[in-house]
Amino acid sequence: MAASSIPPATAQAPSSSGTINASSIPNLRDRIPKLQPRRRAAAPANPTPAPATPTLLPPTATPEKLGDFQFAIPRRRILSQNDHEIFLESATCTLLQAWVFGLAESVVDTPAGVFADALAAAAAARQTRTELPEDIPGQWRPGQQQQRTYQKNLPQRPLSPVVLALLSILDEAEALVYANPPDDAGGSRFGNKRFRGFVDQVRQRAVQWHKEELGMKEKETAKDEGGREGESEGVSAIAEAAAYLAQSFGNRARIDYGSGHELHFVVWLLCLYQLGLVSRDDMPALVLCVFARYLDVMRLVQTTYYLEPAGSHGVWGLDDYQFLPFLFGAAQLLHHRYITPRAVHQPLTLEQFGDDYLYLGQVRFVNSIKAASTTNVVQVGEGEKLTAGGGGSGDNSLRWHSPMLDDISATKTWEKVEGGMRRMFVAEVLRKLPVMQHFLFGSLVPAAPGMTLPREGKEAGEAGADVDDEDEDAIVDGNDTVDVFQEGGVRHIHNPSGWGDCCGIRVPSSLGAAGEMRKNGREALRRIPFD
User: Fold this and answer.
1) In this predicted model, what pLDDT tens digit does every residue of 390-428 receive, in sequence order?
2) In a 3-state reduction of DSSP, which class is residue 513?
3) How far is CA 165 from CA 72, 125, 147, 209, 278, in A?
4) Measured between alpha carbons, how far is 112 from 357 in angstroms, rounded to an integer?
5) What gap in Å lies between CA 391 and CA 370, rounded to an integer?
6) Which uninterrupted H or E stretch holds 246?
7) How far is residue 368 from each of residues 20, 143, 336, 363, measured CA to CA in Å?
8) pTM of this prediction?
9) In this predicted structure, what is the pLDDT of residue 195?
10) 48-81: b (≥16 Cβ within 10 Å) or e
11) Cα–Cα distance for residue pair 2/352, rounded to 1 Å
12) What is the average per-residue pLDDT within 40-59?
């Protein structure tokens, strides 16, 4: 190096002996920045408290009150930002929180194994049924997907007749998947069109399920919220409840599924509570038996038809499809002695306790799909279906494909996880306009005064109607006209302050991507942090 490039402080003439005087070399330690130890960010002085559970009011349409009660055909009422703001301040929003959080509280510290004996007896009884529809393949039997392993020596609880009836309805819904096998000729990762046939059959049979399984009686007429008589006479209470059930299996036009459809299923159970068919004593079974069975059916639907995630945040979301298993599952584990949030990284824990706790079961399912090292194939009619087989190492795979779940696992207690899930339900479901603008309001779950009145014509609750066929006019919110978007046959609006969660770039689900890879000769998904 040239002498001119040496800093003046370090330039030193050599001594007569050719050596440099060490005492003249400056102490460079003072010029090196001192290392500062990393410190964890301080907790906020006033952290946002978890939403409390509002009081769940008594049922509004019990048999004793039916004489003065007018049912309504469920219709969309959140058609603008102003409608959404009115809803958030309404008694209906409080009712939804009271019901969902009440279900979560009913299963605190309760594993699903407390219903193991009753579920086994009910499944055995349903497998002896012979009155199956003619179009159901002979290889299907009720409850064949319900093979679970629960903890031993748990105190057992019985199941009420209405819970058993709900399980039978879900059995028949599962059978319709086998009656509508996927069309392998489509070759699309963005949803199989045979899903529409499945949804059509669910809608056709929903009314009959309420009559035969739940014993609901017909009324002479059904009126909508404007006082107009419905097109289908004699199905008032049944028409209202059946509309929510029909919406809980996914969107027929877009062939997608998300937390909004999951919410409709829980609201269907709320309608049955409002009608006096289910009681508060049934709430633990509604979560651990009925909702768990619904998850089984929806996983079959998702893996069979490659449903697109509705409003998915991709790898940075909690899950592509479901939310409530994490809320209910965190409540189950609230005071567990040795299973901590970090247990989601332990494959043996997921395998041993995944059937008892919804949170662990959902993580196990996500791992098996998104980090699949092997895939299993089963026959669905004439086609094939990708099932949740194999799975990667719980620790490494979760970190790659679900970083949000990985971050949550660093939480010290389940109390914080459960509180965070409550906040997320309010923020990501109830307060998300792209989600709630598709929500249906009737009389059991009424719209608030001041919300946009529904348009004339055929609506979701009526026979043969499809909520996706609605075509609203231009929407005026205050003095401004709100942009209305056409997506998948649905006209709707976007929240101007954020990303259009219901539209945007179409992203194939990990199920669809894995299925198409398998068809092309590849055995598994690559370990990449996105689909």
Assistant:
1) 444 445 577 777 888 889 999 999 999 999 999 999 998
2) helix
3) 24, 12, 19, 9, 11
4) 7
5) 8
6) helix 236-247
7) 67, 22, 25, 9
8) 0.77
9) 94
10) eebbebbebeebbbeeeebeebebbbbbbbbbbb
11) 70
12) 83
- pLDDT surpasses 60 at 348: yes
Cα 162 versus chain centre, distance: 24
Q: How far is CA 217 from CA 116, 170, 211, 238, in A?
A: 32, 20, 7, 8
Pick from 202, 53, 95, 58: which is nearest to 439 by CA?
95
Report the alpha-carbon distance of residue 462 to residue 442 in Å, rounded.
12
CB 503 within 8 A of CB 486: no
C-alpha dist (Å) from residue 43 to 46, 48, 52: 8, 11, 21
Q: How far apart are CA 185 and CA 486, in angstroms?
A: 28
Average pLDDT, integer, range 315-322 = 73
Indicate if the pLDDT at residue 514 is higher than 90.
no
Task: Note the residue count of the chain.
Answer: 531
Query: With the CA atoms of 456, 462, 465 and 471 taken in that order, what torsion angle do they form, in degrees rounded to the nearest 10?
Result: 20
User: What is the per-residue pLDDT across 87-144, written as a single tens digit (0 to 9) for each?
Assistant: 999 999 999 999 999 999 999 999 999 999 999 998 888 776 545 555 555 445 555 5
455-465: average pLDDT: 44
Hey, what are 476's tokens? 């005026």
Nearest to 328 by CA among 109, 50, 98, 51: 109
The dihedral built from the CA positions of residue 97, 98, 99 and 100, taken in this order, carries a sign that is positive
Mean pLDDT, the chain, whole residue set: 77
Closest to 440 (Cα-Cα) out of 289, 274, 291, 241: 241
Q: Is the pLDDT of residue 9 over 90?
A: no
In sequence order, what E strands does 361-412 have? Answer: 376-380, 383-387
380 backbone dihedrals φ, ψ, rounded to 5°: -125, 100
Pairing of β 308-309 and β 490-493: unpaired
Residue 384: beta bridge partners? 379
Q: Where do we find the tokens 């057992």?
A: 156
Distance between CA atoms of 493 and 476, rounded to whole angstroms?
Answer: 11
- CB burial string 222-258: b at 16+ within 10 A, e below: bbbbeeeebbbeebbbbbbbbbbbbbbbbbbebbbbb
Beta bridge partners, 485, equal: 492
**Three-class SS state of 440:** strand
Identify any residues that bridge with 386 across adjacent strands, giving them in sequence order.
377
CB 210 within 8 A of CB 241: yes
- For the record, the structure tokens of 23 come out as 């005492």
**C-alpha closest to that of 365 among 410, 333, 336, 401:** 401
Select from 341, 346, 340, 430 the least CA-distant residue to 394.
346
Q: What are phi and psi of 511, to 5 degrees?
A: -65, -45
Cα distance between residue 306 and residue 511, in whole Å: 6
Residue 201 main-chain phi, psi, to 5 deg: -70, -35
